[in-house]
Write a structure and sequence with these properties.
Largest sheet of chain A: 4 strands, mixed
Shape of chain A: elongated
Strand content of chain A: 35-45%
CATH topology of chain B: Translation Initiation Factor IF3
Structural class of chain B: alpha/beta
Helix content of chain B: 10-25%
Oligomer: heterodimer
Order of helices and strands of chain B: HEEEEEEHEE
CATH superfamily of chain B: Hypothetical protein apc22750. Chain B
Strand content of chain B: 35-45%
CATH class of chain B: Alpha Beta
Largest sheet of chain B: 4 strands, mixed
Amino acid sequence: MNKNIILLLGATFFLNGCGFYPSLKLDCRDNKIPLMVNSYNNSKKFRETSEFFSSIYPPFQTSESSVSGNYVQTTTTKYAGKTCSDMSDDLLSATKGLNDRFIGGIVVSDEDDAEFKMYNPSDVSISLKGKVVKVQGGRNE
Amino acid sequence: MNNNYFRLILLFILMSALNSCQFSISKMSFKAKNDFPVSLSQSLYTNNGVLITKNDYEIIHHFNFKINRVAYLPHLFGIETDVSDDMNKELEKLVKEYKGDGIVNLSISSRKKIYFFTGLIINITGKEWEVNGDIIKIKKEV
């Protein structure tokens, strides 16, 4: 019996260490729009146009259970996930309307720095917030 | 009931009770505060507002480092931890060492870690951030 208990404990410990813990990567190397994450001091050159906020998250699913009469109903919702390229789309729409004379980008001001936040695996995501700016007299690539 | 079964049940009840003691990190945040420009993409702005694109610089060093955090205090809903100091110090050290002008292609990946031997009795969890990026030197003609 003692041997069985030890085996059971061993198996439980082992299985417990084999959980699914998703990892998430924010990689914007293909993005040509400047995505600055630190403060800048030259407020004369930059003109803030709007706030920017975007989040990316991997595919995951959630389950919700509700009791109805004698039945327990479980609803599973699957999220397709959102990647850095979706964030780039968010960026492009945020900088839409800037003409050749203006180069847009995400730069954060002194008061409102870009923020990355990682949440629990059940709600894992990376959020980026900042300000969309345009620079007068800039040049396009 | 067999005495051994009774002990087994007691052991599981005890485990379940202890398992509710969560030592977990629910959120990690980072704010960059450096004198040099840091960009997630391949382009950046200098402090003078000049746009620097891929053709305007050369990559002098690719870096990679990890930041780990473990929760040591029990919290029912987890705690928030700020890794800004560690991360900014590391970035500053690297730019100084390689005499760079800024950082491009900064990428961050996150992973939750459960410490194997303590995972069942008390949930001690940690988070790891892996940071990658390129230190650049801006070409003189820009």
